[in-house]
Write a structure and sequence with these properties.
The complex is a heterodimer of chains A (about 220) and B (about 240). Chain A has about 220 residues and is mostly helical. Chain A is built from nine helices and no strands. Chain A folds into two domains: about 110 residues, no CATH class; about 90 residues, no CATH class. The two termini of chain B are about 40 Å apart. Classes of the chains: A mainly alpha (about 220), B alpha/beta (about 240). At the A-B interface, α7, α8 and α9 of A face α2, α3 and α4 of B.
Amino acid sequence: MTASRRRAAVPAPLRPTWRGPLGLYQPGRSWLHRASAGAELVGLAVASLVVVAVRGGTPGLVVALVALVGAAACHVAARLSWHRTRRGLLPTAVVAVLLGAYQTWARGWPTGVETATDLVALVLLANVVTATSRADDLLDAFQRAARPLRHVGLAPETVALACSLMLRSVPVLLDAAGQSRDAARARGLDRSPRALVVPAAVRMVGHARATGEALAARGLGEG
Amino acid sequence: MIELRDALVTAWTPDPAGGPDTVTRLLGPVSLTLTERRVAIVGANGSGKSTLARLLNGLVVPSAGSVTVDGLDTRTDGPAVRRHVGFVFTDPDAQIVMPTPLEDVALSLRRAVRDPAERVARAREALARVGLAERAELPVHALSGGQRQLLALTSVLATEPAVLVCDEPTTLLDLRWRTVVDDLLAGLPQRVVVVTHDLDAALRADRVLVVDDGQVVHDGEPLEAVRAYRHLMTRLVPGARR
């Protein structure tokens, strides 16, 4: 049987299959995978500061474009899946376009392009960091960074766990919104924002409670 | 040894008429001493069996009385009790907190294993033991319900608890995965307390507790306890065959 016949026999799904949230760890052996999570986080922080600090006019536009090219180059160097990134970046791209359009209308096209490019570049760069660092390594890096907080009575392990769970909560939030949307559709309430927002919020609060219990049940985050 | 002495669990209940909240008894007072390797807890939905299970791990603290596990009091030694007693929830999604199986098991090992490379190696070994080695780095959502429950169990067992409490661990699973999870639980060296609706699983325990309306109404040999439970259920269903 030829490939085209096989394709005809098994119809493709109408919607693309969800391949996991943006930023999910993707195993690999690139230099970015070998780099320490702490170094990658510092790099991301520095890049973010530069992008935010250099604003307006030609310098702002140049820095934004350099950041975008740099983020794309890191993505290529890490050999991450473009398919997964493209799908995950779609919501960010929509926000970037809306934000860019507003800034263009309010302050001119250079600012509009710069704002949209900054946003996409930083999200792409953050994706490279989380996709090339295991959650466990990120947790270690957060824990090291949070050590000074011990002097003000905060346990670094707890702060690190909270940061790590915050990263984990983004896809869970999207999942809760998706479940609520499907439930609203099933009841013919596709266009009701209330039918989407209220159950999603309730699901998230329920998830937060369940996560707290799950951590307590494993004896984690209790000092 | 797990010991409950007049353990009573209460909760505040809102008054539908808008008056002040009232105190409702959820469980107890219960006095028990559990020394058997396998204990099953059966009971109707809402009877208080999950509350009883949560008492053993310190997730629920008694309003009166006391619960001790191997000498540790759940009220005063909460974190130590939870490190000593592992807890498996009905819904694995409520328990898995990291995006991939490997990371979730590694999270459990953080306290015991300081070296990150060794932690990852031990997490891989733990996943390999339950047949999840090839799925170690897949997103958790890509696992089936049975695989997720196995992962939840593996993450808890990685902390090497002396006692394992499972709250309906097979309720959401099909027959194949139920068998896999039951076999895994049966082979564990730890003491295991299982809340279950599966009477076949209850029959394999050394001791069965029947919970109804917040009280342990029967406590004894599996065969006799399951018979008492069946009788109780037929009494609760109007028009059921006796």
